[in-house]
Specification:
Elements (H helix, E strand, L loop, with lengths): L1 H8 L5 E5 L3 H12 L3 E5 L3 H21 L8 H6 L1 E4 L10 E4 L5 H14 L5 E5 L5 H5 L8 E5 L9 E6 L5 H13 L3 E6 L6 H17 L5 H10 L7 H8 L1 H15 L8 H8 L18
Helix pairs in contact: 1-7, 2-3, 8-10, 8-11
Length: 296
C-alpha cells in the first residue's frame, strides 16, 4: 500500500481524454487547459468539435474575470493544449479519460465497450453522469475497478467542488488517481457511494421537477418561482433557471433514469418539462426553455 501511495504521488498527467464535447465537455477542456494540462477531445463530428473549441477559447478569455483563482493564458497556448478528433482510438495515449456523453444507458454502454477495446488496460475512466449507476457503467467493461463516477456541475471550470462516486468494484487506486487529477485542477472532491442519482441529483431534480409542476399549475410565473428561492433562501439561481442551464433534455432523461431505477412516482417527469423538450426548447443552449434567451 505504501508503494502504491508513493506511485500515486508521482503521476505526471501529460494528456487527459475528454469524450463528449457538449456543455460539460467544453467546461472540462477549459478547466484542463487553464491548469496547464493537455486534452484530447473526441466527438462524432468536426462541426461539434470546432464549435466546442470556440466555446473553450471564449471561456479562457472570460475565466480570469469571473474567478481570481484562475490564471490568464494566451489563446495560442490554449489551442496548443487541445487536440480535436472523431477517432476514439486517439485516446489510447491518454493518462485518464473523462466521459461526458448523453445520459442514455444504451449509448454509454456502447461507448464503454469501445473504450475497453481502445485503451491500455491500466487506464482509468471517469464516468461523468448525473444519475446512472457507476457499478452498472463498470459492468460494460472488463475493468470495473478502473471506473469511477464524476458528477461535474456547470460551468465546470468555475465550480471548486465535485461529487465523486465509488462503484461497488471501484479500486482505491482509481479513486487516488482521480483525486490527484482534481488536485491539479484545485478542486475538492466529496466522495459518496453508488446509488442512482447519488446525493445531488436525487434531491436537486425533485426540486426542479416540482418547480415545473408549480409553473404548470399556474401557481406563479417562472420569474416569481425563482425569485422566491433566490430572495428568500439565498440561492444563486432558482430551480427553473438551473434547469435551463443544465439543459431540459438532460433533466428529463435524468428524471426518467431515477423513475426507472427506484420505481417511485415522486420522480415522474412533469408533463410541461417533457413538452418543452419535445418542442426543442432545451434551455440556454437552444435560446429558449422556461425562459427566452435572445442572446443565444
Amino acid at each position: 500500500m505504501a508503494a502504491e501511495c508513493e506511485e500515486m504521488r508521482k503521476i505526471d498527467f501529460k494528456s487527459i481524454g475528454v469524450l463528449g464535447a457538449g456543455n460539460i465537455g467544453v467546461g472540462v477542456v477549459t478547466d484542463l487547459v487553464l491548469h496547464g494540462l493537455s486534452a484530447i477531445v473526441v466527438d462524432v463530428s468536426e462541426e461539434i468539435l470546432q464549435r466546442a473549441q470556440v466555446e473553450v477559447l471564449k471561456n479562457i478569455r472570460s475565466a480570469p474575470l469571473l474567478s481570481k483563482s484562475l490564471p490568464k493564458i494566451r489563446k495560442e497556448d490554449a489551442q496548443a493544449r487541445i487536440v480535436l478528433t472523431t477517432e476514439l482510438k486517439d485516446l489510447a495515449r491518454c493518462d485518464f479519460v473523462i466521459e461526458n456523453v448523453t445520459e442514455d444507458w444504451d449509448i454509454k454502454k456502447r461507448i464503454y465497450e469501445s473504450l475497453e477495446r481502445a485503451m491500455p488496460p491500466d487506464v482509468c475512466f471517469g464516468a461523468n453522469t448525473s444519475c446512472i449507476s457507476i457499478t452498472q457503467i463498470g459492468s460494460a467493461t472488463k475493468r470495473p475497478a478502473n471506473v469511477v463516477g464524476i458528477h461535474l456541475m456547470n460551468p465546470v471550470h468555475l465550480k471548486p467542488t465535485v461529487e465523486v462516486i465509488r462503484g461497488v468494484h471501484t479500486s482505491d487506486r482509481t479513486v487516488d488517481i482521480l483525486l490527484q487529477l482534481f488536485s491539479c485542477l484545485n478542486k475538492e472532491a466529496i466522495l459518496v457511494e453508488d446509488m442512482p442519482g447519488f446525493v445531488s441529483n436525487r434531491i436537486s431534480h425533485l426540486f426542479m421537477n416540482e418547480a415545473a409542476f408549480v409553473l404548470q399549475d399556474r401557481v406563479a410565473s417562472a420569474e416569481k418561482i425563482d425569485a422566491i428561492f433566490k430572495k428568500c433562501f439565498g440561492h444563486k439561481m432558482g430551480p427553473l433557471e438551473t434547469a435551463d442551464l443544465i439543459g431540459l433534455d438532460t433533466v428529463m432523461r435524468s428524471l426518467d433514469v431515477l423513475y426507472e431505477s427506484f420505481q417511485d412516482p415522486k420522480y415522474r417527469c412533469c408533463p410541461l418539462l417533457r413538452k418543452l423538450v419535445h418542442a426543442g426548447h432545451l434551455g440556454r443552449k437552444t435560446g429558449r426553455g422556461f425562459y427566452v434567451y435572445p442572446e443565444t
